[in-house]
């Protein structure tokens, strides 16, 4: 069976030796064996575990959450990842708001022309220019909501729409979907 020294393992993942020593100290990645000279000796099992640790860390998860995820219990694992996703969505919305604010300040200060970020006003303007009226836009939202509700939500947030307004749009989109289904059901009877 192939074994790895701490330096080999660190090099394989682009980590420092001290990072692996820290992981050992907190019980995240422990060497199962020691050589006669008392050097840590890692196996393929630890290599695979470190690969997963690095994957979770690249998703921005703190070490405490990584440790929980590696414990193997599926229930907390899902909730940890769902919380991370919510945190990321919140950060993206916050960054999008900062981006809009910065662009507005740049436009004001330089009186120059910066490529516009697609926001709610621009999007509605494009749909209107394409010949869509309010009812056609409502159908468009309902269809988007029906096919991909999470993507619809993310799209709305990307336009700089608040979480509350995005939820309202999704709510009436869902009502339209349900009304359409009810109408089709009534026609079938």
Automatic annotation (TrEMBL):
Q: Please give the superkingdom of this protein's source.
A: Bacteria
Q: Which SMART domains match?
A: HTH_MERR
What does the UniProt keyword field contain? DNA-binding
Residue span, HTH merR-type domain: 3-72
Q: Which InterPro entries match?
A: DNA-bd_dom_put_sf (IPR009061), MerR-type_HTH_dom (IPR000551), MerR_fam (IPR047057)
The answer to whether keyword DNA-binding applies is yes
Q: Any keyword DNA-binding? A: yes
Put simply, this protein is called MerR family transcriptional regulator
Please give the organism: Desulfoluna limicola
Upper lineage is:
Bacteria, Pseudomonadati, Thermodesulfobacteriota, Desulfobacteria, Desulfobacterales
């Amino acid at each position: 069976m192939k074994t790895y020294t701490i330096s080999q393992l660190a090099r394989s993942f682009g980590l420092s030796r001290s990072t692996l020593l820290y992981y050992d100290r907190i019980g995240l990645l422990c060497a199962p064996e020691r050589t006669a000279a008392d050097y840590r000796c890692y196996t393929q099992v630890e290599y695979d575990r470190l690969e997963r640790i690095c994957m979770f860390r690249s998703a921005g998860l703190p070490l405490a959450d990584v440790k929980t995820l590696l414990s193997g219990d599926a229930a907390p694992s899902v909730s940890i990842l769902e919380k991370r996703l919510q945190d990321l969505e919140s950060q993206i919305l916050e960054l999008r708001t900062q981006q809009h604010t910065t662009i507005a300040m740049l436009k004001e200060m330089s009186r120059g022309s910066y490529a516009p970020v697609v926001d709610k006003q621009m999007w509605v303007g494009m749909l209107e220019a394409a010949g869509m009226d309010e009812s056609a836009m409502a159908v468009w939202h309902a269809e988007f909501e029906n096919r991909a509700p999470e993507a619809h939500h993310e799209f709305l947030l990307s336009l700089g729409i608040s979480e509350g307004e995005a939820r309202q749009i999704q709510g009436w989109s869902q009502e339209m979907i349900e009304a359409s289904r009810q109408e089709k059901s009534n026609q079938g009877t």
